[in-house]
Amino acid sequence: MWLDPDRFEDLNYTVHVLFDDFCDADHPLPWLGQCLRTMEEVELMAALGAAYSAVQESVGASARDEVYLDAPGWSAVVAAAARLAQVLVSNDHAALSKLHDAGCHRPPDTEPTASGAEDQHASS
């Protein structure tokens, strides 16, 4: 994976996450309000799904990763993914900023709790 250069993440895994785990990129509307925040995200996810599906239809579902990456339509997949990523990150940052401004600085179940060790350090 990109965070660990020693681990390889193939295209099949990435597409599985996109179409099966995160949402259905072919039909993203039902995911609005679950993992997609806005209609813009839904539309961009649908565009990504359509771009990927077009490449898959042209090369065949069982084609090797290299064949997908060399396909003439692959640049449209990359462009759609880049635009979607930009909007997802921007919307996530906006939502986090609103939570912070409202006084929510940590998720509810991660608030620090005083332990006996902390109390001992305070009195010494």
Describe this structure in words.
It is a single chain. This protein has helices spanning 11-22, 39-59, 65-70, 74-101, 116-123. Helix 2 runs antiparallel to helix 4 (74-101). The protein is elongated. The chain is mainly alpha-helical and 124 residues long. The chain has five helices and no strands. 60% of the residues lie in helices and 0% in strands.
Coarse structural class: mainly alpha
Share in helix: 55-70%
Rg from alpha-carbon coordinates: 21 Å
Strand content: under 5%
Sheet with most strands: none
Order of helices and strands: HHHHH
Mean pLDDT: 83
Number of helices: 5
Low-confidence stretches: 119-124
What count of domains describes the coordinates?
1
How many strands?
Answer: 0
Terminal residue distance: 46 Å
Shape: elongated
Summarize the structure.
Residues 99-124 are annotated as: Disordered. With 124 residues, the chain is mostly helical. Helices cover 60% and strands 0% of the residues.
